[in-house]
Amino acid sequence: MSLLWSNSDGMSAENRYENHQTSDQSLDKSKVKLTDLLSRLNQEKKKEKKMNIALSVAAVSTITVFGIILSL
Description:
The protein is mainly α. It is built from three helices and no strands.
């Protein structure tokens, strides 16, 4: 009859509860603040915008120089 009531992993309810508490405590240390994430996102957007502008300027400059060379 004891086999019917035993856990498949062999852990008692108390052990599982203690393990759950310790994993919750470790999660508190690894939490990330939303404001930090948003500021990182804004910084990445600014970097990407600057890179896109630089690429666009380079492309327009290249086309302009190529056009001037062809017109000569």
